[in-house]
Amino acid sequence: MVSSAAKVVPASRCERPAPAPLWTRNFVAGTFLNFFIAGNYFMLMVVMTAYALTVHQAPAAVAAFCASAFIVGTLFSRFAAAPMMERFGRMPLLVAGCIAEVALSALYLLNEPVGALIGVRLAHGFSYGVCSTTIATVITSVVPPERKGEGIGYFMLSITLGSAIGPFAGIFLANNFGYPVVFVVASVLVALSIPAALLLRPASSTKVKGSEAAAEAEVEAAADAVAGAVTDAPAEEGREDAAANRDEVLVESLHAAVSTRVPSTHLEEKVAAKVEHSPLARFVEAGVLPISVVCGLLFFGYSSLLTFLTPYATEIGLARAASMFFVVYALAMFVTRPFTGRAFDRVGPHPVMVPAFVSFAAGMVVLAFAANDWMILGAAALLGFGVGTVQSCGLAMAVRVTSDARLSVANATFYMLLDVGVGIGPILLGIVAPLIGYANLYLCMAVVGVLALALFLVVAKTEKGAR
């Protein structure tokens, strides 16, 4: 009898399957949830220093820490989020985190002392980090593998909108209605994340604690489904096809669902070999570290915009344009991310991310030599494209071949490095800025962009078919 391996497969069975849907209920609900928590974060971040200065009469350094304490709390959450997801499950942790976000946002209305305010900011940052890491893990697990770049690009637009609407709303409400109204609106906004979380119905693999037993059970179920799918064939051929397909599914699924991330570059292999069997493996996904370091370096440069753009624009007499900077910045992200995501899926990271690094460096140079409003806004567009593309495509590179059981650790590792870049940037650059001036500081940030590009080329030089 001719074996099943030698049989000619009918043309109908060789047809290319239709692409898996992207805009599912889970994807839409998760993207809106991310927008609600990001909008709350940015709305409060831009007003917190001024709130501590004017209402609590805090010293400038203490007032600045009232804002940056949030980032410190977020950084700690990146270490804790993955173990918490494994222990409690992703969905219960996400709902609990959203509830905590609402409660902590409402606490600002109590007008607590500065010490208590810093404590609330630390706790709020921790809850935000848990929520953002968990929802990113859920979304990256439900996006079809062949549409990772496109899906993550659309998902990250939720942060883009939050970074545009949040600061604008926070400043407008604080200037016209006072800080209590800001805190009420921020609380209502983040409260919308709770029904969004309850609308999520991800696959069972995103609900379980990331254990190998659960993954193996899913593999068995998948294998049984494949075996049952051939019942229409003649008995003997059906048994042969079922056995062949079952073995194939078991091999592929065990690698995808149980094993750790398959490194896609030789550098990732070396890093993974160092970390895989160490205690750090519980908190850090080794293969994600190289691209995460690249993106963290770029976000170190990005932190200079958050910290020094306003005083720099005031110094050169372009404060009016600076007030619209982040709006144009967000619009550039919003327009380009869908295209760059699809291009990433089709042609890989190099043709998409290299222009993004160049755009970041060029934007910093234009900003350093800005002499009119149009140069400020042009720099915003260049920087929006650069930062937005590197962030979304960097995350896609990090998770596209990560097993579902390790997605939580991979997302936490990626965001941890971004937090480190944004967190230490204001501290280090705050020492340098008075010595060299703002314009020269932004020229230095252009150099940082070039260094990030060089490091990216090293990290992504020897891809081994990760697409």
UniProtKB/TrEMBL annotation:
PROSITE patterns linked:
MFS
Matching entries from SUPFAM superfamilies are given as: MFS general substrate transporter
Which Pfam families did the record assign? MFS_1
**Any one GO cellular component localisation term in the record:** plasma membrane
What stretches pass through the bilayer?
A: 32-54, 60-81, 93-110, 122-142, 154-173, 179-200, 288-309, 321-340, 352-370, 376-401, 413-433, 439-460
What InterPro entries does UniProt report for this protein, alphabetically? Answer: MFS, MFS_dom, MFS_Exporter, MFS_trans_sf
Query: Is the keyword Transmembrane assigned to this protein?
Result: yes
Q: Does the keyword Protease apply?
A: no
- Annotated Major facilitator superfamily (MFS) profile domain ranges read 26-464
- Keyword tags: Membrane, Transmembrane, Transmembrane helix
The record's GO molecular-function terms, alphabetically, read: transmembrane transporter activity
- Protein's cellular compartments: Cell membrane
Q: What is its main location?
A: membrane
Gene3D superfamilies from the xrefs? MFS general substrate transporter like domains
As for membrane topology, the entry says: Multi-pass membrane protein
Protein's name according to its UniProt entry: MFS transporter
Which taxonomic lineage does the organism of this UniProt entry have?
Bacteria, Bacillati, Actinomycetota, Coriobacteriia, Eggerthellales
